[in-house]
Design brief:
Blueprint (H helix, E strand, L loop, with lengths): L5 H10 L4 H4 L10 E5 L9 H5 L8 H15 L6 E8 L4 E13 L5 E11 L8 H16 L1 E6 L6 H6 L31
Parallel strand pairs: 4-5
Antiparallel strand pairs: 1-2, 2-3, 3-4
The protein binds coenzyme A.
The site of coenzyme A has 19 residues, from β4, α5 and α6.
Keywords: Acyltransferase, Transferase
Pfam families: Acetyltransf_1
EC number: 2.3.1.4
């Protein structure tokens, strides 16, 4: 299986009988210069990191770009796992929205696939224009087409309504539990353990 690129993106959708153009319909004139596509390695030059992180003013951005490239190349080693979609404003060469589907293979469900949505974000200037709906809708659709038996996402209270409108519901009796840990070396043979 190949890493997630444009061809794979289109193949996944079209092999199931759906074309992107059928799914993402143009909604108004303002959308004409917006395209949906997989994340690419030079997207850090188009504002992807500024979109995802809110500390670009103070962060070491050169180091972050290096990590970004490493992160993408690591994804090539586990194809079929990470699916990041971005929306690019072609007029401004700027990434204005993004979301990632991570596909996990569940041992306890006979290696069935379970989807998780991460890093769902729309640039402040472009919110409430249904761009988030398109990205989350497409990732959810992609998860379904890949065969995920369920897809989940974590969100804060202030965006719960958005998630509910996208059919992600709070499940009675289920809680999102969190344990903050200080990173420690887990595998001393792994060269990147300092960031684990
Ligand atoms: C949450 C977020 C992705 C929504 O993106 P968006 O493009 O503004 O959302 P849309 O325009 O597609 O909104 C779809 C619907 O949700 C509603 N909605 C969007 N954000 C909302 C919010 N914060 N509170 C309540 N409703 C909201 C919209 O009004 C719209 O309702 P409608 O269909 O009845 O008109 C965006 O606000 C964002 O990036 N937030 C910060 C990052 C974040 O919290 N990510 C986690 C999200 S899972």
């Amino acid at each position: 299986m190949k890493a997630f690129d444009q061809e794979t993106f289109e193949n996944i959708l079209s092999s199931k009988g759906v074309k992107i153009a059928d799914y993402v319909q143009k909604r108004d004139a303002e959308d004409e210069d917006l395209i949906l596509r997989p994340l690419e390695v030079n997207d850090h030059t188009k504002g992807y990191l500024e979109l995802i992180f809110d500390d670009v003013e103070t962060a070491d951005n050169n180091e972050r770009e290096r990590v970004f490239e490493e992160y993408l190349s690591l994804q090539d080693t586990c194809p079929g796992t990470y699916y990041t979609i971005v929306v690019e404003d072609l007029n401004r060469n700027k990434i204005i929205a993004s979301g990632t589907l991570i596909v996990e293979q569940k041992f306890i469900h006979e290696i069935a696939l379970r989807g998780r949505i991460e890093n769902m974000i729309v640039d402040q200037e472009h919110r409430r224009r249904k761009i988030g709906s398109v990205v989350l809708g497409l990732l959810t659709f992609l998860a379904e087409k890949l065969g995920c038996y369920k897809t989940t996402l974590n969100c804060t209270d202030d965006v719960a309504l958005f998630c509910e409108k996208m059919k992600y519901m709070h499940e009675a009796g289920q809680n999102f539990m969190l344990c903050h840990v200080t990173p420690t070396v887990i595998n001393p043979d792994h060269e990147n353990t300092s960031r684990l």
